[in-house]
Amino acid sequence: MTFKKILIGMQDGLRTGSLVFLLVGLFSGKTFLLTPSSILSVLLVSALIGVASYIFDATDRFPFPFLLFCHFVVTATIVCLAMICNDWGSMLFGWFFWLNFILIYLVSIDSMIKTKKINEALKNRRKH
User: What's the predicted TM-score (pTM) here?
Assistant: First the structure.
């Protein structure tokens, strides 16, 4: 993996993670204290999850469901660690957090799959 590819993954993760964080804050109806360290951790987590999305580049070696499971576990682990580091760990024991996490994860994966299909179609169109 090249440095440029890592930066692109981080950028994609930052874009998605920042949006998700703000939307969750908007729709949760709860207020929470934002500190420079919590903001930094959200940015770091988002960047790491963006880089972790390159797990899906191994579709030629592993079946997609296996890669999806691996990515889910990596993403959940990164998010859980960030929640604990920000003293939001108590939320991890609530069903509401996990319902939201799974729904956001599914929407993100669906968006990623659709984007890849569109990019492949555009690439094929340029060839012909």
Answer: 0.83
